[in-house]
Amino acid sequence: MSSAHKIGALLFCPDCGTLLNLPDDGHSVVTCEQCNHEEPASSFDNIEVTTRSHPDAFPSPLRQKRKTQTKHHQEDHQGTLVAEKCPQCGHMQAFSKEMQLRSADEGSTIFYTCASCKHGWRINN
Predict the structure, then answer these.
(1) 57 located within any domain
(2) What are the residue ranges of zinc fingers typed C4-type (predicted)?
């Protein structure tokens, strides 16, 4: 009886190469779905599973806000050049100005002007 081939945290059937399922609770063997090879459940002992995700795989408003806070100071009367996507043309740079228009205990308002098409928009911070 041959034993399963281990690649990372995966076990493959030694007869046909099919990925073996994890053993069900209380079962002592795992049966290959393709060739019916029976692998002892103990083959899955001490397997460490590590998963990694690319940072952009799960977009979040907080991560997007952090990106917009990256400022490239540029001497210009239009404001500070930041990495912000224009809702009109999709350009990824805009000039920003921050102003306190509401009461002091509320957030400020950020005015954006696209560096490409000059479209303007605002966000209450």
Answers:
(1) no
(2) 13-35
Mean of all residue pLDDT scores within the chain: 81
Q: Is residue 23 part of a domain?
A: yes
Residue type, 26: G
Place of tokens 């809702």: 87
Say how far apart CA 118 and CA 120 lie, in whole Å: 6
Q: How many domains does the chain have?
A: 2
> Which residue positions form the known binding site for Zn(2+)?
13, 16, 32, 35, 86, 89, 114, 117
In a domain, 52, yes or no: no
Render pLDDT for 30-63 as a digit per residue (tens, 0 to 9).
999 999 999 998 888 877 777 777 767 766 776 6
The secondary structure of residue 116, as a DSSP letter, is: T
13: containing domain: 5-44
List the binding residues.
13, 16, 32, 35, 86, 89, 114, 117
Give the whole-angstrom CA distance, residue 53 versus residue 113: 34
